[in-house]
Amino acid sequence: MTQLGFGLPWAMTLQLLHPGKPVFNVTGDGAFGFSLQELDTARRYGLPVINVIHNNASWGIIKLAYEKGGFDFASGNDFGTSLEGTRYADIAAASIATGRWSRPSRRCSPRSSGRSGRESPR
Ligand SMILES: Cc1ncc(C[n+]2csc(CCOP(=O)(O)OP(=O)(O)O)c2C)c(N)n1
Ligand SMILES: [Mg+2]
Asked: Hey, CA dihedral for 67, 34, 86, 110, is it positive or negative?
């Protein structure tokens, strides 16, 4: 683990160094939010980085620490840890009007292994 948001810029650099090879940025949803704007950089430079977002709709590790620290989530307060509702594929599609980006091809039930979706360039 390191600073949030470094994944996509790193992945774009790797893609520049290795054109034609598949490059993946595997990231948490919160971390991805730190560099969402770099999707536009990827578009401008024609870098087809594949973003795999572990979308648990949460600052998960922070929530875990809060729970261990005794914060009362049962009260209904999420203490700022919820990232519910952000539609990353729609953001990508809206900011990258090339038609090269796909909507999520799969959505899991929140009750399965946490919220997740798959979003990737075609
Ligand atoms: C720039 C920066 N700010 C804060 C942190 C502290 N931090 C580490 S993990 C994390 C939460 C990450 O959330 P997410 O990417 O959604 O991953 P999850 O824990 O949900 O799997 C935070 C805030 C950090 N590493 N870097
Ligand atoms: Mg998360």
From this structure: negative
